[in-house]
Amino acid sequence: MLKTMSESEVAVPHVPMTPAQAWRKLREGNVRFVAGQTDHPNQDALRRQFLIDKQHPFAVIFGCSDSRLAAEIIFDLGLGDVFVVRTAGHVIDPASLGSLEYAVDLLDVPLVVVLGHDSCGAVTAAIEAVESAQMPPGFIRDLVERITPSVITARRNGVMDVDGTVVEHVQQTTERLVDRSPIISKAVEEGRTAVIGVTYHLAEGKAEMVSGFGVL
């Protein structure tokens, strides 16, 4: 049943979360989703009105564009809870990196989540390109080129399957975010933000942390 917030509940002053508190809130929502006991919080008209002039998301989720990976649903969240950036295969490009830096630097988001999932089509395409030595057409090639280093690293470590390569790619992406962005790396060093990698299992709906930078 959809829960409606009262005006007093909507007007509660913003209290910043720590990275650990933000991850705990995501985990709790995912547990509800897996169990089929979702609360559907912050999805009513009062919440919508409350957010007209401000937003204080407690996490930024950099996820794959796959239609089965809707962050607000799998973590049982609502309006204003998370800042979401999505590209196929959570590939880093200037626009996505700038969006993540905006969330960390201007919105003071305490947690960056790189969200991958099993049976990822973009990772599968990169694996197929490596195996066939043939690149796909158009801008799909750009996606594959950016994922290929993760495929090569996975194979060097003896990982050949798609889902294992997804885990490697999530781990590689978290590391690249911290390495490539002075804004994000500074926030991590100062303890204001943590960057974690999470994989989502399509069948059971469970989100599992597989890597991280910063204090949780």
From TrEMBL:
<dbReference type="GO" id="GO:0004089">
    <property type="term" value="F:carbonate dehydratase activity"/>
</dbReference>
<feature type="binding site">
    <location>
        <position position="64"/>
    </location>
    <ligand>
        <name>Zn(2+)</name>
    </ligand>
</feature>
<dbReference type="GO" id="GO:0008270">
    <property type="term" value="F:zinc ion binding"/>
</dbReference>
<feature type="binding site">
    <location>
        <position position="66"/>
    </location>
    <ligand>
        <name>Zn(2+)</name>
    </ligand>
</feature>
<dbReference type="Pfam" id="PF00484">
    <property type="entry name" value="Pro_CA"/>
</dbReference>
<comment type="function">
    <text>Reversible hydration of carbon dioxide.</text>
</comment>
<dbReference type="InterPro" id="IPR015892">
    <property type="entry name" value="Carbonic_anhydrase_CS"/>
</dbReference>
<protein>
    <recommendedName>
        <fullName>Carbonic anhydrase</fullName>
        <ecNumber>4.2.1.1</ecNumber>
    </recommendedName>
</protein>
<dbReference type="GO" id="GO:0015976">
    <property type="term" value="P:carbon utilization"/>
</dbReference>
<keyword id="KW-0479">Metal-binding</keyword>
<feature type="binding site">
    <location>
        <position position="120"/>
    </location>
    <ligand>
        <name>Zn(2+)</name>
    </ligand>
</feature>
<feature type="binding site">
    <location>
        <position position="117"/>
    </location>
    <ligand>
        <name>Zn(2+)</name>
    </ligand>
</feature>
<keyword id="KW-0862">Zinc</keyword>
<comment type="similarity">
    <text>Belongs to the beta-class carbonic anhydrase family.</text>
</comment>
<comment type="function">
    <text>Catalyzes the reversible hydration of carbon dioxide to form bicarbonate.</text>
</comment>
<keyword id="KW-0456">Lyase</keyword>
<dbReference type="InterPro" id="IPR001765">
    <property type="entry name" value="Carbonic_anhydrase"/>
</dbReference>
<dbReference type="InterPro" id="IPR036874">
    <property type="entry name" value="Carbonic_anhydrase_sf"/>
</dbReference>
